[in-house]
Design a protein that fits this description.
It comes from Actinomadura adrarensis. Residues 13-110 form the SnoaL-like domain. This is Nuclear transport factor 2 family protein. This protein has helices at 3-17, 25-28, 47-57, and strands spanning 29-36, 44-45, 65-75, 78-87, 93-103, 109-117. By secondary structure, the chain is α+β, with helices and mostly antiparallel strands. The chain has one domain: Nuclear Transport Factor 2, Chain: A (Roll), CATH 3.10.450.50. It has a six-stranded mixed beta sheet.
Length: 125
Amino acid sequence: MDRAAVQRWVAGYERAWRTQGTEPLAGLFSPDVSYLPSPWARPITGLPRLATWWDAERDGPDEPFTMTSEIVALDGPTAVVRVEVEYTQDPPSQWRDLWVLRFDTEGRCTHFEEWPFAPDQPDGH
C-alpha cells in the first residue's frame, strides 16, 4: 500500500457510509475481515457480520456529517489514519479517531481497529 491507495480507501469508506445498503463493503474489506469498533471490543469477524453491524450503527445514507482524515503512518500493508468526524444532526457530536488498518494484496482491509474519542468521554485517567 502507498499513501495514495490508503487515501482512496478512506474516501471509499466515507462513500460507503453515505451509500444506501452495504454492497460497497465488499470492495473495501476482505471476506474474513476482523473489525474492532474500539480497541476493547470483540472483533466483528467476516463481511456478513460487518454488514449487519454497519447498517445498525448509522442513521442512514442521509446522515449529515463532515469527515477529514490524515495518514499518520504507513508501513507496508499497515496504515494508521487520524480521522475527525462531526455529526451535525440534533444533537451534534464530534469524534476524533485513530484507525489501524491492515490490507491484503488487493487493497482490501483485513483488519480494522478503531480508537474513537469524543470530547465529553473520559480519557482513561
